[in-house]
Amino acid sequence: MAAALALANASGDFSMRALGQRLRVDPMAIYRHFRDKDALLEAMVDAALADFEAPPADAGDPVERLRQMGIGFRRALMAHPGVALRVATTRPVLGPHTLALTEACVALLTELGLGQGEAIQAYSALVRYITGVAGAEQPVHSAGTSETDWQEEMRSAYASLPAGQYPHLSRMADEFLHRGFDEQFEFGLDLLLDALVERGRRNRAADLTPGDLG
Amino acid sequence: MAAALALANASGDFSMRALGQRLRVDPMAIYRHFRDKDALLEAMVDAALADFEAPPADAGDPVERLRQMGIGFRRALMAHPGVALRVATTRPVLGPHTLALTEACVALLTELGLGQGEAIQAYSALVRYITGVAGAEQPVHSAGTSETDWQEEMRSAYASLPAGQYPHLSRMADEFLHRGFDEQFEFGLDLLLDALVERGRRNRAADLTPGDLG
DNA sequence: ACCTGAACACCGTTCAAGT
DNA sequence: ACCTGAACACCGTTCAAGT
To answer: Is B85 within 8 Å of B35 (Cβ atoms)?
Structure first.
């Protein structure tokens, strides 16, 4: 069921009535299975995450596997544009696929040397960043703008700013041409991972020399 | 004009027709000033950012000022819930307030020692993270859930998971009680800033010893 | 030429009427 | 008791009709 929903959604935007027509069923029949449109969207978000699984233990060190999870998470969201827009502004999803990925991600974070409180906050920070990226990219894709068109659009917007008022921005306009969405996403992902690695390393060092804290 | 719009929006949700009623004007009159609802929302996002300005040069070192900008950005978004939800999924806003803050932020990032390409990507990463957080918090606030109720809700959801299947998550349930939205937000913000500081430091070191790169 | 508001094509959801 | 679909209260936007 939810699989059919995700499929229906993959083609553009989405409404209860359109889904009913797509499934050749009375739109009201959907309310038998889901209390709300929100409940249905929640199920769809979880279904969208069924497409990818946590990388196996031999896929690299914990950092590399976290990186792969982040990349896979974003890819799964972008594959379902109608869902991606909503996941950025929805309450936490507690579906089986989401929970499995959360568990795997938190496990990897503790392997980095993070404590319980740090691990769960680090997970949340990663998800916020990834959904923020997905939310920002979605309107560009759904408007049918190609990545290169988009880069040129941003470049010319920044290049045409008055250089006196915005010296940095106007000078940096050309930078948009060199970086694609993937590279931009991974830049921020790596920032977060770098900082988490460093934090784990510090924790371990403090554990090994507990008398040295002052 | 846009100020009145932001005000109207501050009270819950928002529609063209409701705005017309609020302004005691024909709803269609709005289309004289804005081509679209999207164009209007864009103007509202920019107007929401008029509330805060970049911290002055004597407010601390670049990192501290970047931190204050991040905190202020989030606060401005949360003060306009109807806008906050949309900013997470809208195309980049090129209004005067947004651009002024972007310029100030990018200037501070270059002060950290980042190159042009790094600075603009770092800015984007920070914005994605902040809008991701705003998008995640907005539904909680607009549902009228208090922060402590929300924490308890999350705790019990995680605590009731089968410990065999989700060992980390079920063990970490209590962590939700100790961290508020502010602390959670600043945790992720500091991760990004820590990594950016480190990157700037490495750039400077490489500049000082150009022969040492291998 | 400008402004108005009725009308169009939707939407999520309720609920009375059928079976 | 279950299912259906007409009806309700919206929505963004168009466009014909007025001034």
So the answer is: no
3-state secondary structure of A179: coil
Cβ distance A175 to B117 less than 8 Å, yes or no, reads yes
Q: What is the pLDDT of residues B126-143, one digit of tens each?
A: 999 999 999 898 888 877
| CA–CA dist A175, A180 (Å, integer) | 10
Nucleotides of strand C lying closer than 7 angstroms to a protein CB: 3-6, 10-15
For chain A (214 residues), the mean pLDDT of every run of 10, in chain order, is 66 82 90 91 87 84 96 91 73 88 96 96 97 89 86 93 96 88 97 98 83 46
Cβ separation A129–B124 shorter than 8 A:
no
What tokens does A100 get? 């499995």
In Å, what is the CA distance from B181 to each residue of A121, A124, B30? Answer: 10, 11, 36
What number of other Cβ atoms are within 10 A of residue A25's Cβ?
11
Average pLDDT of chain B is 88
Q: Is B30 on the interface with A (CB under 8 A)?
A: no
Token pair listed for B58 = 């004597």
CB A135 within 8 A of CB B87: no
CA-closest candidate to residue A43, choices A101, A15, A88, A4 = A4
The hierarchical CATH code for the domain B2-144 is 1.10.357.10
Assess A130–B contact: CB distance below 8 Å, yes or no: yes
For B5-38, the DSSP string reads: HHHHHHSS---HHHHHHHTTS-GGGHHHH-SSHH
Residue B127 contacts A, CB cutoff 8 Å: yes
Instruction: Verify if strand C has an atom below 7 Å from the CB of A188.
Output: no
Q: Give the global pTM.
A: 0.92
Interface test mutation site (partner A, options B128, B142, B149, B203, max chain A beta carbons within 10 A): B128
